[in-house]
Design brief:
Blueprint lengths: L1 H9 L8 H4 L35 H14 L3 H16 L4 H15 L3 H14 L4 H13 L3 H14 L4 H13 L3 H14 L4 H18 L1
C-alpha cells in the first residue's frame, strides 16, 4: 500500500508533480498510477496546459509512446515516457471540460469532496469518451471511501483505454485490500505488460506471487 498511496501524492514515482495532480486527494492502493495531468500553465486559471502535438488524434500521439514504454527497461527513462503519456491523456480538447477538471482539482484541494465529485460527474456526462474524467472520479470515489463506485469508474477507464496503467494500479490495489490476491496479481501482470520498467510493480507481483504460493502449501 505504501507505494501506491505515496505515488498518488506525486502521481508517479520521482516524477515532477504538476500543480493539478497535487490538488487531488490521496486515494487507491499500491503502485504507480497514471502520472499527473498537465501543469496548470494556461492563462485561464484551472485549465491544464496543452500537451505537445495536442491537435493530433489521441491515438496518434499515445500509441508510439505506449510502444516505447513497453520497450524501455530503464526506470528513469520509462517515467519520462509515462509522463508524456499522461500529458496527452490529460488533454481533453474541450475548454469546458478542462475548466471543470480544474474546478474539481481546486475543490479536492480544499477538501470539498462533494463539489469535486459534482464537477467530475459533469465531465463524464459532457465527454464520456474522455478517459481522465473517469479516472479522476475513480480517485475521488476511493478517497471518499466508496470502493464499489471507484471500481465501476476504473472499469469505464479500462473499457476506453485498456493500457491505462494508472487505472490498473488502482484496480490491483483495491483488489489487494479486498483480499482478492489472485485477481490483484492478474491486474499487476497486465500493468507490467504495459509498463515493464516499474520496479515497485515488479516487487508487488513478487510479493503477491509468494503470498499466493504460500497459501497453497
Amino acid at each position: 500500500m505504501r507505494y501506491f498511496r505515496s505515488s498518488f501524492v506525486i502521481l508517479a514515482v520521482c516524477v515532477a508533480v504538476p500543480a493539478f495532480a497535487q490538488t487531488l486527494p490521496q486515494p487507491m492502493p499500491p503502485s504507480q498510477p497514471m502520472p499527473p495531468a498537465p501543469p496548470l500553465e494556461s492563462p485561464q486559471q484551472g485549465v491544464p496546459a496543452a500537451a505537445p502535438n495536442a491537435g493530433q488524434p489521441l491515438n496518434a500521439r499515445v500509441d508510439p509512446l505506449f510502444a516505447a514504454l513497453k520497450r524501455e527497461r530503464n526506470p528513469e527513462k520509462a517515467r519520462g515516457i509515462a509522463t508524456q503519456i499522461a500529458m496527452n491523456m490529460g488533454e481533453s480538447g474541450s475548454p469546458t471540460v478542462n475548466l471543470l477538471m480544474g474546478w474539481a482539482a481546486t475543490a479536492a484541494k480544499e477538501k470539498r469532496n462533494a463539489a469535486a465529485l459534482d464537477f467530475l460527474d459533469r465531465v463524464t456526462l459532457i465527454d464520456p469518451a474522455y478517459v481522465e474524467g473517469w479516472n479522476r472520479r475513480a480517485t475521488m470515489h476511493y478517497a471518499m471511501g466508496d470502493q464499489r463506485k471507484a471500481m465501476a469508474d476504473i472499469a469505464e477507464v479500462l473499457k476506453r483505454e485498456p493500457r491505462h496503467f494508472g487505472a490498473l494500479a488502482g484496480l490491483a490495489g483495491i483488489l489487494t485490500e479486498a483480499g482478492r490476491d489472485s485477481q490483484a496479481l492478474n491486474a499487476w501482470e497486465r500493468y507490467l505488460d504495459i509498463y515493464p520498467a516499474d520496479r515497485e510493480a515488479q516487487e508487488a507481483v513478487t510479493k503477491l506471487s509468494e503470498k499466493i504460493a504460500g497459501n497453497r502449501t
